Known about the structure:
This protein has 6 helices and no strands. By secondary structure, the protein is mostly helical. It has a single domain (9-110), classed as Transferase(Phosphotransferase), domain 1 (Orthogonal Bundle). The N and C termini lie far apart (43 Å).
Amino acid sequence: MHKKLDQGRRDDLWAWLYMTVEFMAGKLIWRNDEDKVIEKKKEKIGSKLLAKCPQEMYMVYDHIRSLEFESKPNYPMLRRQLDRVCARLDFHEAQPYDWEKGGYYYEYFTKKSDTEKDLTEKDIKV
């Protein structure tokens, strides 16, 4: 429950959209705001929220905004929009994540810093 209200599929999609926007844009526009300010911004965000996101996300936003509590989301349409973003940006589902072997930052994630070293049993005091 959020604010003592039941949550539905629409609310799950809002949470997913905010998380996705944060991944795409780097941060949400209300990141350091107080709760009251956040609620007002959420009511009027649209183009500001999605400013750094692919254009397909506007259709996703509009669809989520149109949903009522009991509404069944159009999941196939949402998937098509994400597929379009991925195709346009040349992303493929089979691509490894950044931290996986073959991923863009794999070497960064596996490189040990100067202060790191392999621990031996001598280093671990039980």
